[in-house]
Design brief:
mainly alpha, 3 helices
Amino acid sequence: MRKTQWFDFRNFFYKPSLTSSIKPRPFKAHSFVPFSPFAMLDPTILTIGGIVLGIAIIERILERWGVIDLVDQFSKVMRFILPVTFYSALIYFFATFMF
């Protein structure tokens, strides 16, 4: 016949720990990363800059050839494209190299 054995709940689950149960709280450390001009040599930044520079050179060539109507169309497009390209490249630069 089996004998039933009783355990006290507190004594059964209490195990003294050798290590402290208090864990150190993590803290955020911020550091300053100096800006490097070599970060502008990213292929995406160079491609965007090359496209904008190429359009500006084409506009100057067309102006020398006397095709003023086409130059006027380029200038209307560039008024919109240049600020959008500049700010998007700036956001891309800060998003990829600063964080």
